[in-house]
## 1
Amino acid sequence: MDKPIIEVKGLKKYFKTPHGMLHAVDNIDFEIQRGKTLGLVGESGCGKSTTGRTILRLLEPTDGQVLFEGEDIADLSKKEMEKKRENLQIIFQDPFSSLNPRKTVSQTIMEPMIIHKLYKTKAEMMEKVLEIMEIVGLAERLVNTYPHELDGGRRQRIGVARALALNPKFIVCDEPVSALDVSIQAQILNLMKKLQKELGLTYLFITHDLSVVNHFSDEIAVMYLGKIVERAPSEELFANPMHPYTTALLSAIPVPDIHYKSERVILKGEITSPIEPKKVCRFANRCEYASEKCHTTEPELVEITEGHYVSCFLEVVEAAKAKKAQEA
Ligand code: SF4
């Protein structure tokens, strides 16, 4: 297998608060192969957006490494990072608030080109703007319109176009369709998938909604309170979820069948504080299977079958771990 384009190793992002250190991202590891999508899923506040921003160094990491094409970008100076950012872009959740209302479509797409001095003349830049607009399905006649004159779908197409302006290789997609109507969600997801195929893009796709990443991601990582609790190829995760939190998230996906009897898992119990958390299972207060061990020991993320990682003390997980160890 080729070397991954992105490797995240022991990444931490802590924030100082009056009550102690908030562990927003706490020692996570993953990698993404070139041209593939990793879906990062979890409830709001679990640290998934902070992970995306820390990888791009929009937030400075507290510790850990982020390797882009084998180079640790967590160590680059600000100037070196600025240059590197041409390859590393982000699409934000809310297209309206992430766009400058005083800038037209062309000015918005041009902005990163001007900052990175990518083209010598305005004519060259305009040619590229029109090319990108065509790629993302924005009609040329919209070139001088402002964000408020466009609907949500078109605004998000500008967000995608802006991210493409510097010909990036890797894009963090931070809930890119959550603020859109369902019909428009599908259009944007299809567009992103098409662009990935045509331009060889690699995505980290962040969402709270597992159903959105189902057909979109090659692999899915489930995050809970700053930790990755399960990671597996998408099909495997849907067919064989092992962590109780993943099972609860999957049970919340609506099924379009009036005869289907929902077995939704309703999570009860208090959410553990992310401030100076103890070395225990962070899900223990809400887990119906929690044992004493879960309240005293922290489970590690361990590979139980090829490419399927789980951090849990459940018997079935322990048995899979033992089987894998025996085979090794
Ligand atoms: Fe539940 Fe224990 Fe597994 Fe945590 S380690 S998810 S508390 S069974």
## 2
Amino acid sequence: MLTSICGINWGDEGKGKMVDLLSEGYDYVCRYQGGNNAGHTVINERGKFILNLLPSGILRENVVNVLGPGMAIDIRHLTEEIGRLREKGVKITPENLKISDRAIITMPYHVLLDCLEEDRLADQKFGSTRRGIAPVYADKYMKKAFRMGELLDPDSLFERAKGIVEWKNLTVAGGYGHAPVTAEEVVAYFKTYGLPLKDHICDTGLLLDRANRAGKKIMFEAQLGALRDIDFGIYPYTSSSSTIAAYAPIGAGVPHLKLDKSIGVMKAYSTCVGEGPFTAEYFGEKAEKLRAAGGEYGAATGRPRRVGPFDVVASSYGIRCQGADEIALTKLDILSAYEEIEVCTAYELDGKIIREFPYPGALDRCKPVFEKVKGWHTDISKCRKKEQLPREALAYISYLEEACGCNIVYVAVGAERDACIKLK
Ligand code: GDP
């Protein structure tokens, strides 16, 4: 059984919570793309955890967690994240955490380049999380990235490091005028942060293939959402990896396997971190109210998120990109603050009403068309059964199902693990 859990929107949909909940009964949870620019928040009986690199299955005793070959791993960050979790009593061993030998390594110079470029761009910046993700994926495709498998023998890396550093300094020192990077510091870095991870490093493709043959259940956990996908998102304001479900078997190292189920996590309203077009965006007091109600501040960066009502146009596109068989609708409880709930049902582009998500270049010219539906205006955070939800909340769910042509199976009404209702 292969299931993916992915984001329908711009990220921050609550994937961590849903993976934590739905991974019960799964044997493997695998991250397959991106790096520590994610911030998956999980709240359960063990406490509150923010996971950047580790799969959300790490909080379950019997789950084997995998960082797949499609990921970019900041080894210092990973070491610190493992340390933070261990301090809270989470067991992390080479048995329950496996790291792909093919995953690329985010180096300090990638983080540096990310910051130097964002600063150079000033008010034209992309709104990068400044965690080095774009520079390291760029190096991957230049075939100049280091991979986890190389950490098994850092001394042999010196010559290769010299060549890469020489090339890197053309940009770091030559372009940006920053102090150059040295091969010695690269190798020393690998010894400090890489060697201690060596017992976790393996061919995760082989591991997952064997697990699948043995009838084990595998869950793939995406980072960010469809609209941040490098190919299908709001390029260039996207992440640098493939966030879509179809990429999960590839980024996990099992490209020959097909998903049995794609579960899309979709938020009951819209949020977006960073720059780029966000058609349904609220401003001023309207935005303040929704941001405060939803606590919309980035888990990885603390940045206030841009907010708006549910966007049918963008979400329908996200559902299509993710091939979502089932939807988990999250944060429905936040809309309890409203007597009437606005929904963006179409865009106006150059005087025409459109309902299909356009080529991203046209988004700057799109204006939102809002409709209003009746709210329930009462606390639903304690509801645990479909029958306990107010009629208007059920009507809102049906409205979204119809508008987006999707199948909403789960509804989350709070951050805690049990604050979720299975509708079907
Ligand atoms: P992710 O990156 O998709 O995992 O999402 P984030 O962790 O960035 O953001 C989701 C935030 O909403 C976290 O703080 C979660 O604890 C919280 N959350 C998730 N689902 C719900 C929900 O249904 N209701 C409420 N109130 N909070 C939720």
